[in-house]
Every structure is written in structure tokens, then in C-alpha cells.
Amino acid sequence: MRLIRLTLCRHVAVAILAIGLLSPSLSLAQTPPPAAPAITPAVQTAAPTAAEAAPTANPASATAAVPPITLSLPQDLSPWGMFMAADIVVKAVMVGLAFASVLTWTIWFAKAIELLAARRRLGAAIAALAAARAWNDVRALQGGKDAASALIGAADTELQQSADAMSPDGVKERIGSRLERLEAAAGRQMIRGTGILATIGATAPFVGLFGTVWGIMNAFIGISKSHTTNLAVVAPGIAEALLATALGLVAAIPAVVMYNMFSRWIAGDRALHGDASAEILRLISRDLDRGVFNRRRGVAAE
């Protein structure tokens, strides 16, 4: 009996040991293969790719779904085109500035010729007065229409009117007064027209600024009416405004430059008038000291 129990215990122990050795292989056999989880993400990833490719398969339908956006910009943005498309107020400003620019260049052309010719004649007269030894040598220069002839004629007229009162100081004072008045008249003649240049140079930028403000105001009015801020609405008004500003500068800058140039030229011509008057006074003073006019008066009395 005891032997039977020992035999049974031995068989049970062998069975338990066999089961323990076979359990790892059974667990491996029951574990699912690792490739199965990799297949599932691949399928899930491929599905969106196919879905994404579906909308691009028909580009015509995608284009038809988006509404087209068109901007109707002005066809002609040249200066003339902007002028024709401008408001009536901006047009009036542009026309006025263009007229001012033409007037500026006309004054420059006429005044430059006048001043250069007067300077050349005065230079020649001063050279003749400086070379003369007596008043009789320069009497032939009077009778012309230039400034030097007028100065010589005024001095000779005063000498003739003072023939019976040949006080040297009195004669020179009266002749100097005549020459001074002629110099002032010549100065007024020379500056004639330059005041227009000063006015254009001072006011043209502000007139152009007025056109700029008006054009920008029209641009904002267009924005408010169309309820949009695209370039097609804003561009025409801004272009007109900038054109008005440009015309204002085109009229103002040359006017200022020409006015400064003529101011220097007129100052030089006034100096030449002063030199001619000084030469005349020196000749008359020299003849007065010589007694030429007294002897001439005595000869006339005889």
C-alpha cells in the first residue's frame, strides 16, 4: 500500500514537471503575431490619403466653386488721362497751375533778354564815359532810348537850365537829384514782372495742396459709396491728387529760382546805373572846376 502511494506521488510530480515545461510554448502559441497591429495603421493612413486625393481629382469643379474676384482699374493713368478723369475743381486747379508755369517761363525769357541787353548797353556807356575827357565828348551819346542816354540827357538839360546860376555845388546837387530819380525809375522798370514770379512761387504749392486735398476727399467719397477699399476705387482720386501736387511744384520751383536770379541781376544793373551816374557827375564837376560852363555862358552872352 505504501508502495502504491509512493508510485502515485512520483507520477503526479512527473506530470506537474511536464506541465511546467510545456507552459512557455503554449503561451507563445496563443500570443497573436506582431504584424497584425501594423496592418491596421496602414489601412487607417491610406484611407485619408484617398479621401484627400478625391477633391483634387476634378480641378474644374474646385475652380467653379470659388467666385472670381476682378478689379476694374482705370485703363489710362497717364497725366492726360488723369486730367480728363479728374473732378471739375481739380481740373480748374491743374489748368491754373499750368497757366502759371507757362507765364513763369514767358517772363523769364522776356526779362532775361531785357536785362542782358540793358547790361550790355550800360557797360558800353560806362566805358565811353570813363574814356571821355570833357562833357562835350559825351553829348553825342544822348538821344538814345537806353538808360545811359537818359542819364546824359537829364544832366545836359540841367546844365542848360542852370546856365545863369553856375554855382558848382548847386549844379551838382540838382544834377544828382535828377540822376537819382532816373535811377529809381529804371529800377522800377527792371523789377516789373518779377512780382508775378514771387506770387507764383509763394502760392502755387498751396494751390496744388488744395487740389490734393480735394482729390483725396473724392477718393474717400468713392470708398464710402462703394463700401469697398480696393485699389480700383482709391487709385483714381489719389492719382489726381498727386498730379495736382506735382503741377504745383512744377510751377513754384522755377518761379522761385527765377525770382532769385532776377533779383541778383537787377542789383547788378542798379550798380551799373550808379556807376554811370558817378561818371557823369565826375565829368561835370571836372568841367565846373575848369570853368568851361562859365566861359561858354560868357560866349553865349557876347
Question: What is the averaged pLDDT score?
Answer: 75
Helix content: over 70%
Spell the H/E element sequence.
HHHHHHHHHH
Q: What's the β-strand tally?
A: 0
Q: Largest sheet, if any? A: none
Hey, roughly how much beta strand do the residues contain?
A: under 5%
Radius of gyration, CA atoms, in whole angstroms: 54 Å
Tally of individual helices: 10
Low-confidence runs: 21-71
Structural write-up:
Helix content is 83%, strand content 0%. It is mostly helical and 302 residues long. It has 2 domains: 1-29; 79-301, no CATH class. It starts with a helix and ends with a helix.
Summarize the structure in short.
The protein has 302 residues and is mainly alpha-helical. The protein has helices at residues 2-30, 35-56, 59-65, 79-85, 88-131, 147-161, 168-190, 194-226, 231-290, 292-301.
Features:
mainly alpha, 302 residues
How do the strands and helices of this protein lay out in sequence?
Elements: H1 2-30, H2 35-56, H3 59-65, H4 79-85, H5 88-131, H6 147-161, H7 168-190, H8 194-226, H9 231-290, H10 292-301
Helix pairs in contact: 4-9, 5-8, 5-9, 6-7, 6-9, 7-9, 8-9
